[in-house]
Specification:
This protein is α/β, with parallel strands linked by helices. Helix 3 links the parallel strand 2 and strand 3. The chain is elongated, with a radius of gyration of 23 Å. The N and C termini lie far apart (about 55 Å). About 5% of the residues have low confidence.
Length: about 280
């Protein structure tokens, strides 16, 4: 009877229900155009601060659905989550939806525990750089390529010029440095949980179910089910949304609000790049 009465009382006099703030990270990381804000530290800093500021929260939930993107933005977001978790003494739970691959998986490693759907895609611990070569195409079209630089290698890897072995070697060395940083981060966070598998850091990706056996994922589950099991059926999920950003507030946009042709062209290119990222994982 006493417990029932407490439940009817307001504020601190009643029985408080656990509240878990939820931050959603969705989409390619770092692809920013006037109409597509993208996932960056700038877009997530506010929501993350508000989530970790929720008093009495037993944990902060991060929901990730990202095929990756910018390694720099991924690392910045990872570091901000870890800094806030340590500052507030708060546990972080990551829930993977369709995919947490490449930079998306790097962010997931900021969590104390990674939970995925059995059919989620995880991993892709690697670095990729892709493009096209148009050397023969411009010759056939009778186009003359004119490039003037101060610095002999300023225009390396120009898609309209033949590749030079020394330029490719430089790119591969740079990629290896980024890859080593990524692999070291995963080893630091996942530690002894990682399987002794030579393919783990090859850039391959796996389902969430296979990820458990490889040590990339802790357990299988979903946001609501896991939180109810951990903190009781009365747990309240509090979504922490970012501020809505309008094109004309950033100086871009369409029509009377900015340079329409440029914005639409940038957005079209960004959409193609984003589609290519998702397609890499069969999504």
């Amino acid at each position: 009877m006493l417990d029932r009465l407490r439940g009817l009382l307001p504020g601190k006099l009643g029985v408080s229900k656990p509240v878990v703030p939820v931050v959603r990270i969705s989409g390619p990381i770092g692809l920013v155009t006037p109409l597509r804000p993208g996932v960056t530290l700038a877009t997530l800093a506010g929501p993350l601060e508000r989530a970790f500021a929720v008093k009495g929260a037993p944990a902060v939930a991060i929901v990730i659905n990202s095929p990756g993107g910018s390694p720099v933005q991924s690392h910045l977001i990872y570091r901000r989550i870890r800094a806030l978790a340590e500052e507030k003494g708060r546990k972080v739970l990551c829930f993977v939806e369709d995919v947490a691959a490449s930079g998306g998986y790097m962010i997931a490693c900021a969590a104390d525990e990674i939970i995925a759907d059995p059919s989620s895609v995880v991993g892709s611990i690697g670095v990729v750089s892709s493009g096209f070569g148009f050397v023969e195409a411009i010759h056939k079209l009778g186009i003359e390529r004119r490039v003037h630089t101060a610095g002999g290698r300023k225009a390396i890897l120009d898609p309209f010029r033949p590749e030079k072995p020394e330029d490719v070697e430089h790119l591969l060395a740079l990629q290896q440095e980024v890859h080593d940083t990524f692999a070291d981060l995963v080893r630091e966070r996942r530690g002894a949980l990682l399987a002794d598998d030579p393919q783990l850091f090859s850039g391959l990706f796996w389902t969430g179910k296979a990820g458990v056996g490889l040590g990339l994922v802790d357990t299988i589950g979903d946001l609501r089910g896991v939180l109810r099991d951990r903190y009781g059926p009365d747990v309240k999920l509090r979504p922490i949304a970012g501020e809505r950003s309008w094109p004309w507030k950033r100086g871009g946009g369409i029509g009377i609000f900015g340079s329409g042709a440029t914005s639409l062209a940038d957005d079209a290119v960004s959409a193609l790049e984003a589609r290519a990222l998702w397609n890499r994982y069969g999504l």
